[in-house]
Inverse folding.
């Protein structure tokens, strides 16, 4: 006799939903951590090189083309 033979469908469904909820929380937490790390990295990149960003903006506005 198997372990699952003695369990009700309701119990199996609750267990499956619980496991899926935990998995969802883990994936969501990993995604939030990744977004935070990406934002920190981009913030560091932009704060370390403001002169080059200003040069790019100036070069873009002086290229003789008009943007519509």
């Amino acid at each position: 006799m198997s372990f699952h033979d003695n369990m009700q469908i309701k119990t199996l469904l609750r267990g499956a939903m619980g496991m899926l909820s935990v998995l969802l929380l883990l994936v969501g937490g990993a995604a939030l951590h990744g977004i935070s790390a990406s934002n920190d990295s981009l913030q560091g990149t932009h704060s370390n090189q403001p002169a080059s960003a200003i040069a790019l903006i100036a070069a873009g506005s002086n290229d003789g083309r008009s943007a519509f």
User: Anything to note?
Assistant: DSSP finds two helices and no strands in the chain. The helical segments are 9-48, 50-61. Residues 9-48 form the longest helix (40 residues).
